[in-house]
């Protein structure tokens, strides 16, 4: 069977949307998350990586500002992990490298200027708590450090706020005839088709690939830069949908779609930043999961709306995308 160019493009858009949901390991938006998704498992595996096998995971090396590809960053004969276990500064050569129990000295390790990223803020809080704990006990175990990290990660270091839309944001049409609804559905589908970049990988796959390259000591900037095309596509998608005249009976569904698209866009923008700001990246992954499901739900509800009103789309129409993602 031969397919038209429009049918093939609709297929690509459908695969991207379904692929995002499948990558996260979810079946339906209503299902609760009871365990780590495949994406989280893969990213968790990256976070467990210890490239130089010095006892500090690569992300911990970011906190201590040590070299993740050098077991002994300060070249004093003791590995970075062992120095941390002994309460010594792994970036300062022995013998005068013991961390002070004065919490005020934490800033000398992490820098005295105001933190510029979520990771820097996290790092400073980590050091302050670590040194405070060190003052009260002889040894700060790995379990102690993990407890500090778990406590800090419960904080919102990188709040991700999306632009929200309401009734005042959209253009309303009084025409809710089948002809008008078909034109409306096809216009939304065409926007998705026209806004889809020629990027095969899912957003989380690109983020994961970039982190893997970086963790191997390479430069993942070209890989993470592919997100720019996806971000631009979503921004165009939002602009197009805002310009549509929306049937009054679909106004709430239209707003839900716009807000879901806005959420996915800002989450991907944060993934982009997360390449250089790991703590923000972790938050971005969580937000992305939520917003992708919201987008799927918005598309599902619009599909149900068209069915209720007796509107169906053929494979040659842009609106066929609604049936394709269910």
Fold topology:
Elements: H1 5-23, H2 38-47, H3 58-64, H4 80-85, H5 106-110, H6 118-136, H7 142-153, E1 171-173, H8 178-195, H9 203-215, H10 221-224, H11 227-243, E2 245-247, H12 251-274, H13 278-308, H14 320-324
Parallel strand pairs: 1-2
Helix pairs in contact: 1-13, 2-9, 6-7, 8-11, 11-12, 12-13
Which key terms come to mind for this protein?
326 residues; mainly alpha; 14 helices; 2 strands; 2% strand
Describe the model.
With about 325 residues, this protein is mostly helical. The protein has 14 helices and 2 strands. The protein has a two-stranded parallel ribbon with strand order 1-2. The chain is elongated and about 80 Å long. The two termini are about 25 Å apart.
Main beta-sheet strand count, sense and barrel state: 2 strands, parallel
Number of contiguous helices: 14
Number of strands: 2
Q: In terms of per-residue confidence, which ranges show pLDDT below 50 for 5 or more consecutive residues?
A: 1-35, 102-111
Query: How much strand content do the residues show?
Result: under 5%
The averaged pLDDT comes out at: 79
Gross morphology is elongated
How many domains, in number, for the residues? 2
- The rounded Rg comes to 24 Å
Indicate the structural class: mainly alpha
Order of helices and strands, N to C? HHHHHHHEHHHHEHHH
In short:
With 326 residues, this protein is mainly α. It has 14 helices and two strands.
């Amino acid at each position: 069977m031969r397919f038209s160019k429009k049918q093939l493009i609709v297929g690509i858009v459908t695969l991207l949307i379904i692929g995002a949901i499948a990558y996260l390991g979810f079946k339906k938006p209503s299902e609760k998350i009871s365990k780590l998704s495949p994406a989280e498992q893969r990213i968790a595996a990256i976070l467990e990586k210890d490239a130089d096998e010095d006892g500090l995971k690569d992300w911990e090396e970011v906190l201590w500002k040590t070299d993740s590809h050098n077991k002994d960053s300060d070249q004093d004969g003791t590995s970075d992990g062992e120095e941390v276990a002994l309460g010594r500064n792994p970036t300062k050569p022995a013998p005068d490298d013991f961390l002070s129990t004065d919490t005020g000295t934490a800033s000398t390790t992490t820098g005295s200027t105001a933190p510029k990223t979520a990771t820097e803020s996290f790092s400073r809080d980590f050091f302050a708590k670590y040194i405070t704990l060190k003052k009260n006990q002889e040894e700060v175990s790995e379990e102690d450090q993990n407890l500090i990290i778990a406590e800090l990660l419960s904080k919102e270091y990188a709040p991700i706020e999306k632009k929200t839309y309401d009734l005042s944001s959209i253009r309303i049409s009084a025409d809710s005839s089948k002809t008008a609804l078909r034109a409306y559905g096809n216009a939304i589908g065409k926007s998705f088709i026209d806004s889809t970049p020629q990027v095969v990988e899912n957003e989380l796959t690109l983020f994961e690939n970039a982190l893997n390259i970086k963790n191997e000591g390479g430069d993942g900037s070209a890989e993470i830069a592919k997100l720019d095309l996806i971000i631009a596509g979503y921004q165009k998608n939002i602009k197009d949908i805002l310009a549509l005249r929306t049937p009054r009976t679909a106004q709430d569904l239209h707003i839900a779609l716009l807000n879901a698209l806005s959420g996915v866009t800002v989450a991907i923008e944060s993934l982009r930043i997360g390449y250089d700001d790991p703590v923000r990246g972790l938050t971005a992954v969580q937000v992305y999961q939520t917003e992708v499901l919201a987008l799927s739900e918005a598309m599902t509800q619009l599909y149900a709306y068209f069915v209720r009103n007796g509107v169906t789309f053929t494979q040659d129409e842009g609106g066929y995308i609604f049936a394709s993602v269910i």
